[in-house]
Amino acid sequence: MVTAALLLTGCSRDVTGTAVSAGQGPGTPGEGQCATVDAPLADIPSVRNNEPRLRIPVPSGWKRNTLMDSPIIRYAIIAEDLTTGGFTPNAVVTLESVPGARDADEVFDENRSNLVAMMGAFDLSTETNTTCGLPSETTDYTAPPMGPAPRRPIIMHAVVSDAGGTTYLATLTIQTADGSNPTYQRDARQIVEGFQMLPPRR
């Protein structure tokens, strides 16, 4: 898990996306167990038809950033109005997979260990939860200065799904230079609580 270290600095270009209100989509399996938030949901494009579908809440003032899109980095949004000290708050969604069925707790443990080993994360605090009925966890931690980025608080929400004999790990990483900003706190809470991981389309 190297994507938690990604920094988006505010350079962006808008793209047209699909936004739906939480809880108003078609009744697919698992969707009824997703949390409802006020922010509209953006559908994250899938790379393959057999992988889980992902959705992210996009609060007012946040917009799509495509500069770092890749087969692993699936979506990013930024909040330019909340930029502090040259650092723009961002939320990055990644999706990784390994063949076979893996225990969710083992996947989460490896993911957190990589945060410490690869980017020097510290002060980790993890809460176990569920996302659309799937095992998930939310980890708050502090990242050290990295390039132009200052020491900063980060929230990482991780979800595991076993689909078609493949284990998928989706991570939603949100970071800012000013964790005390009440607008950022409200928006980050909505993004985490409303994030969705759903079964593949049949």
Please write the string of helix (H) and strand (E) elements: EEEEEEHEEEEHE
Low-confidence stretches: 1-29
Question: What is the number of independent domains?
Answer: 1
Helical stretch tally: 2
Oligomer: single chain
Q: How would you characterize the largest beta sheet? A: 7 strands, antiparallel
Strand content: 35-45%
Write down the CATH topology.
Protein Transport Mog1p, Chain A
CATH superfamily: Mog1/PsbP, alpha/beta/alpha sandwich
Distance between the termini: 29 Å
CATH top level class name: Alpha Beta
How many strands in all?
11
Which keywords apply here?
202 residues, mainly beta, Protein Transport Mog1p, Chain A, seven-stranded antiparallel sheet, 2 helices, 11 strands, globular
Describe the overall structure.
- With about 200 residues, this protein is mainly beta.
- It has one domain: Mog1/PsbP, alpha/beta/alpha sandwich (Protein Transport Mog1p, Chain A, 3-Layer(aba) Sandwich), CATH 3.40.1000.
- Helix content is about 15%, strand content about 35%.
- The protein contains two helices and eleven strands.
- It has a seven-stranded antiparallel β-sheet with strand order 4-5-6-10-9-8-7, with helices on both faces. Strands 1-2-3-11 form a four-stranded antiparallel β-sheet.
- A hairpin with an 8-residue loop joins strand 2 and strand 3.
